[in-house]
Structures are given as C-alpha cells and as structure tokens.
Amino acid sequence: MGRHGWDTGARRWRFGALIGVGMAALALVLTMCSAWPGDLGSGDTAGTSTDGARVHGTPQQDKGQPKPELGWGFTHTQFSADTGNATARAKAEKLLSGARLPQIQHLMGWGSNNPEPSPGRYQFGEMDSRIDLIRRSGGTPVVTLCCAPDWMKGGRAGAANTNWSKQALETAPSPEHYADFAKLAGVVARRYPDVKHFLVWNEFKGFFDDGAKRWNYEGYTELYNLVYAELKKAGKDIQVGGPYLVMDSYEPRAQEHASAVKGPWGSIDQRSLDAFTYWNKNKAGADFAVVDGSSYTRDDELLPDPFRATEKLTAVSRWVRQQTAGRLPLWWAEYYVEPGDDRDERDDWSEPRRAAVQAAGMIALVRGGTTTAFYWNPQNKGASCAGCLWTSTELADGGTELPMMALISRFAKEFPPGTRYDDRVAVAPDDVPNVRVLASERTVLVVNTLDRAISAAVDGQEFDMKPYEVRWLTRR
Fold first, then answer.
1. What stretches of 160-225 adopt beta strand conformation (E)?
2. CB–CB of 373/72 below 8 Å?
3. How many CB atoms lie within 10 A of CB 82?
4. Contact in structure between 232 and 42 (CB atoms under 8 Å)
C-alpha cells in the first residue's frame, strides 16, 4: 500500500464510535491471530533491515538545548509535499522553507509505513522521506509515537501482513508489548537524532475500557512511562509529552459525564479530565503537556456560535495549566473549529469564514496559555482541498500557498513563544461584540466575526473590514 493512513482529512476520534471498541478489538485480535501460536509470519522480511537505529541522512545541526515550546505549526497527514510532481514539490518546499514551522510526522500511518513489521526488522522508508522533507524545509521535526506494528497488538508479523484498516490502526499495543513499543521509540530517536520532541501515542486510541465505560488511563500511563524512560536513555535532552488526550464536550444541558469545566459552549467529559489527572499524578516525567480537541461538541454543535464556541479552547487550556501548576508548557497536538460531514470532509465554509474562525480559535488558545499548537493539514491529491495548506503536489501547478498556510505562518511569525501580549488594546464599544483581537508590542490581529462588512476602530486606528476579514495591524 502506498501512503498509509485511513483518512486523508482532519479526522477526529468521535467518542460515540468508542461504544463496542473493546469487542471490536477482541474480534480484530481473533481475526489477525488465525495462525498457530508462535507463527508470526516473521519469515516475511522483504524490504526490511536490522539497522533501524542507524542514523538516517544528514541530521540538522545541533541548535543547542531544545526548548519545550515550539509555537505554531502543522501535522503531515497521508499526502504531503514529499511526493508528486517535481516542480510542485519544489514550490511547496520553498513555501515551507520561508515559514520554517514545526512539523509533526506520525510513526505509523498518516504517510508512514509499518516501522517494525517483524521483531527487530525495520522499514522506515516513508518516514525517512517525511523527515527529509522537514529537514530540507528548515522546520523543527516532531514525531508522534503512534501507531503500533501488528505483532504488538495481536496480529501477524511480516512486511506483507500489515492491516491498514482504521480499526487495526487504532488498536493499542497489548500490555505484554508495551516494552517492545518503548524500545521501538528508542530506535526512532537514535535514527533521527535531530528529532528532539516526541508525543506519546495519539488520542488514547485503543485505550477505552468498555466494561468500565471510561478511559484505561492506567494502561496508557504505564506505556507512557516506559516510552519516556527509553527516550531519555536515547538522549537526555529529548523532550517528551503526553497524554495527547481528546477533550470532548457535551452540550450545556447534558448531565451524563458533565464536569465543572463548562461554559455556553458545553461541558467537558469528566472522564477525559479524570484521565488527565491520573496521568499527571503518575507520570514518570514530562517536558510538556499535550491535549487535543475541537470547539464543537460530540454532536458537532458549535455553541452558541462558531466564534464563541472557541472559548472552549481557552477554558480547557486554563484547566490543564492549573493541573500542572503552570510548570509544563501546554501543547495542542490537534485543534478543530469546523465540523466535518459524514466523511469528515469540510467543504461547507468559504475560505474567508474558515480563516476567521481558525484565527479566533488560535486567539482562544493563546488566551488559555497555549504556547505550541499544530494544525491538522487535510491534504489530498485533488484540485480542491478545503482547509489545505498548499495545492496538491500531485498537480503540475501544485505547491501554491493557500489561505490557511498564510494565516498560520503569519501567526507563528508575529506571536512566537515568549511573546508578551497586551490585554489593554482599545476597541470601540460597538465593535467589541463583532471582533476578536490579539496584540503584542508591535502587532495587532483583528478578526471580523460577521458575514458582513464593518467599520472598526481598534488600537487607535479606524478602518473598514470585509466579511470575515482577518486584518494585521502594525502598532504605532
């Protein structure tokens, strides 16, 4: 199979789909383990090697002690700028080189092959390609350590036996293989010595306990601690974070699993808060805390409207910062402000509206104390791609910047980690309900939240704004 990943879009783990996951996982194990005990298909070693820990390519030069705060970046998904038309790839790389954003690549899936199809036999070709792209474009590489080879979760080993179904990919390693997964993490760290930031797992995939109707946070934390120790063994300066937990929410009137973290946008699922609290108390260590989530509810409701719904991102950020007593920088590995359709595609909004709500979401994250966040790039191979960062490099004229890339790269440039924000920006009283504002000592970002033109007065400047316009002001 080519570029691996069960969904090219900005996928979310939908909590309703968790019902029955335990039974589904059991069925998967029974299906994948149809061979006799001990018959792992390990003889199938085509395309693999035993030198996985050998340094790949030309690592970026040492930039000194890595920082736990990276700013604003994006995640590579199934399709990216390392394949396709040569001219388009070069154009996309030039675009990325100008922005120099931090970039996430997953260990398995979302553009990367099965890294260890059989115990001790490695297959890093596709991940090598992604790391090379990040290096060439001058970005800071980040690796999400998910997902796990089949033999670590009850399936058959062998290069030809990888099950790329969504169900299989989202199965966690079995407890007896936690140490094997941690060892693989160490191999990755040694192969790419310039990767100094690692996220442990993704959205607690496979860690929901159907019987208890809650997250198996004990199992995740056990896995996390083993991975943390192995990564620190590979390099004391490596930065490790978790738990990469989904902060799902219910609409405000819902009582089941309601929590004290609530607002007009809804209420955070108490089970997610419980999982974070357990990890935070029992972790072996962490250099930053990681969560993800959307501004909308489990049922895709944007309450009370798309812009005010982003207040959820502020509330969650503040809660997490409280739990860690402000000692751990806060990362959002994924954040979403636009619900998808049944295929998780997002074609209903215009690009101006998408950019405006996205900007409001990023402002909300900053207000909550977030210092690092990654946009999930829904890249595809077609001519149309809602919310993508650049036009597809599969096209001869591809690699061209799209509005979301312009927004994220400008935001990253104007508001890097360590920015001192000004909360006293003057906004005309009649504009307060209609605009979102974020200001540093030199720049003011203004977002028109209305689908109509307005005249605004912000920070001593008067100007007209188009519907859903995102405006950058230089302070006088």
1. 197-200, 208-209, 214-215
2. yes
3. 22
4. no
Residue 55 identity: V
Task: Quote the pLDDT of residue 44.
Answer: 74
CB 266 within 8 A of CB 250: yes
pLDDT digits (tens, 9 = 90+) for 268-306: 999 999 999 999 999 999 999 999 999 999 999 999 999
Separation between Cα atoms, residue 392 and residue 57, nearest integer Å: 26
| Per-residue confidence (pLDDT) for residue 343, from 0 to 100 | 73
Cis amide leading into 147 (omega within 30): yes
In this predicted structure, the answer to whether residue 380 has a pLDDT above a threshold of 80 is yes
Length of the chain counted residue by residue: 476
pLDDT at 246: 98
Q: How far is it, in rounded angstroms, from Cα 448 to Cα 470?
A: 7
All residues at 6 or more sequence positions from 55 whose CB lies less than 8 Å from its CB, including other chains: 190, 191, 192, 193
Is residue 170 within 8 A of residue 147, CB to CB? The reply is yes
Longest dimension (CA), the chain: 75
pTM here is 0.92
pLDDT band at 345; cut points 50, 70, 90: confident
Cβ distance 405 to 418 under 8 Å?
no
The residue type of 238 is I
Three state DSSP letters for 66-91:
CCCCCEEEEECCCCCCCCCCHHHHHH
The pLDDT of residue 150: 98
pLDDT tier at 388, thresholds 50, 70, 90:
very high
Tell me how far apart the alpha carbons of residues 395 and 433 are, in angstroms, rounded to a whole number.
42
State how far the Cα of 169 lies from the Cα of 146, in Å rounded to an integer.
9
How crowded is residue 203: how many other Cβ atoms within 10 Å of its Cβ? 21
Burial of 452 from C-beta contacts in 10 A (0-12 / 13-18 / 19+): exposed
Phi, psi of 151 (to 5 degrees): -70, -15
Could you please report the per-residue DSSP string of 190-203?
HHSTT--EEEESST
**Residue 32 in this model has a pLDDT that exceeds 60:** no
The distance in angstroms from the start CA to the end CA of the chain is 55
What would the pLDDT profile of 172-190 be if each residue is shown by its tens digit?
999 999 999 999 999 999 9
pLDDT tens, residue by residue, 213-253: 999 999 999 999 999 999 999 999 999 999 999 999 999 99
Cis peptide before 243 (omega within 30 of 0): yes
Compute how many other C-beta atoms are within 10 angstroms of the C-beta atom of residue 236: 7
- Closest by CA to 160, choosing from 195, 135, 123, 111, is 123
